[in-house]
Amino acid sequence: MPYRALSLAAIAVCLAFPALAQDTSMPDDDGSVDAETQMARNLANAALDAAPVFDGHNDVPIQLRSRFDNQINDFDFEDTLATGEAHPQGRVMHTDLARLTEGKVGAQYWSVYVPTSISEPEAVQMTMEQIDVMKRLIARYPDSLSYAENADQVESAMANGKVASLLGMEGGHSIGSSLAVLRQMYALGARYMTITHSRNTPWADSATDEPEHGGLNDFGKDVIREMNRIGMLVDLSHVSEDAMMDTLDVAQAPVIFSHSGARAINGHARNVPDSVLARLPQNGGIVMVVGLPGFLNDDRRQWYATREAEIARQKSLYGGQPDVWETAILAWDEANPEPQTMISHMADHIDHIKAVAGVEYIGIGADYDGMPTGPVGMEDVSGYPALFTELARRGYSQVELELISNRNAIRVLREAEQYASRVADQPPIETLLPAGD
């Protein structure tokens, strides 16, 4: 891959920054920033101007369904700051065209997620509806968004100042345990599939469900082979460690983790263990680091578990008396505020993945509009420059920042396409899920 050469001035800036543990993205109280932060900000902006962010996971499509029932003819994606009115908790959407520009986003995988609580046939239909609504939204803004299905189209869109817009399926239930449906979803534009979501599929184990298959069963391994054959990226966010390992045993093209962190930094099952990170260079895949506080900040994860235990305790003590236990939880919340998650927590995950796998295997997949908020200073899609400023302060070079922002993601997409091209003469896999599975 051709990397941009750093100027001598940029190299000097990189060498000047020691690794810092504290969050450094916020200005001083008077609005000013110190010289070191300004230099880091300049380096980050230079990197993002050269290589705008290619984010692995954004949940705008499910927001369009849950808030507007996919009725978007009157939806204004230029500015979504008034969308809190359409949400039961008053949450404003994280994404709009203005903030994508501010965040220096150049490419986005839009997640056509559907819940795991519905049947597989319902999931197939609903996924198609989500593909439809996102394609319609992209088409409404041709000056800002450009539908893309391959790496060349991504690079062309970014060169023309548009956000390259690709589609990714979140959850293997969306194919109804059918390789024929998988192929048709690819034909409709889906360029990755997260092989599970929060529950197991009939052929793969989720990270957050009771193990059922020991990773992937035989049909699941053929799902991976067929995804490789047609050029669809295999996304291992949400899957069990055994399923990650089984996939790496089978995969002939790079995998992605569209929105995950490092389990060594935060022990959540949704994060990637070092055993998998160590294998990533051989596969060539990437971890696109998530922005969800509960996956980043282990203190936040521990706080949430303690709070859930307290809710269960209060319900056990005062079952049938919601006014009593709800009052007790309000008092607990006041005495035990949620730990803040900072940009530095997200940078810690990037540091760890770099140390174990290497900087060539890192991307960004924040999960905006699929979580309540991002870290402080990165609450929505406008916040990416603050993260890259923090990385610059920690000593990341412009080349490294560009690798993380989009060059690794483009490489992985292109290599998946190249593998599919090499095996184009192979017939489709026709395996059926055995009856009873």
Automatic annotation (TrEMBL):
One term of GO molecular function: metallodipeptidase activity
Biological process terms in GO annotation: proteolysis
UniProt entry keywords in alphabetical sequence: Signal
Keyword Acyltransferase applies: no
Signal peptide feature range: 1-21
Protein's UniProt name: Dipeptidase
